[in-house]
Amino acid sequence: xxxxxxxxxxxxxxxxxxxxxxxxxxxxxxxxxxxxxxxxxxxxxxxxxxxxxxxxxxxxxxxxxxxxxxxxxxxxxxxxxxxxxxxxxxxxxxxxxxxxxxxxxxxxxxxxxxxxxxxxxxxxxxxxxxxxxxxxxxxxxxxxxxxxxxxxxxxxxxxxxxxxxxxxxxxxxxxxxxxxxxxxxxxxxxxxxxxxxxxxxxxxxxxxxxxxxxxxxxxxxxxxxxxxxxxxxxxxxxxxxxxxxxxxxxxxxxxxxxxxxxxxxxxxxxxxxxxxxxxxxxxxxxxxxxxxxxxxxxxxxxxxxxxxxxxxxxxxxxxxxxxx
Length: 324
Fold this sequence. Notes:
Elements: H1 6-18, H2 21-26, E1 27-32, H3 35-40, E2 52-60, E3 65-73, H4 80-95, H5 102-114, H6 119-131, H7 137-148, H8 155-161, H9 165-174, H10 182-198, H11 210-220, H12 229-245, H13 253-267, H14 272-282, H15 289-314
Helix pairs in contact: 1-4, 4-7, 5-7, 5-9, 5-15, 6-7, 8-10, 9-10, 12-13, 13-14, 13-15, 14-15
């Protein structure tokens, strides 16, 4: 028998949402006794031991539009503290990560994936990989992120710690000047939770119409001819590829991206993180989170060799002629 009744869960959630008005505005909460009830209700692929699940979808209940649902399986929740940890995991973690833009979200997940063997994060990765061994690495990385919120418990603490979040996110995810550590995840998570508390963060990453975004990016390629740096290099290679293929639909955008990566880093010495972020923003082949993560992985693998290549080109050429 569940330690918490549905009435208990509703009362606790009502108090919880007072601290997170953004979640109260955009999410609806549904409580079920067992995971089997969720499965029979149309929620597929849920673990029998799962405590909660977040579903990102627009829902109109006749009065207001919600941006998603949080389900909690009461039978799997041990007590009130465990229930609150589950709410934070699903609400601040899985809903909260969507308060990053698509490019920021892929940068965060990429950094978490690259941190797999960092001692301070390795234990969380081990737990997640055991629970979600059949899921993709990006799903596992988001679970690692969501688990951090289970350890964040009060608003005054968030106000104190969250001030470090922007710098931690910029250094470890956008610029990638150093590897991500557990304390960075804590700072970033606190930044997200505090933003859901004070209203400064709202949902930015939504289910996307990929065909429309691809069309918009293709249409924007010609305007990049007047840009500079990475964008100009992309225009040059993309324009050549489109002319050769006859139309944009037949272009292998991964090949175009690879040529841009090689030239930008190996010839011009551009920072790998800048190349990644720019291509995620403009390439028709980097629309989804999965595509962006594949692009970032490709850059991570190619960058060391390309940077060495660039450095050698900048070295002074030794005068080998004999003195007389």
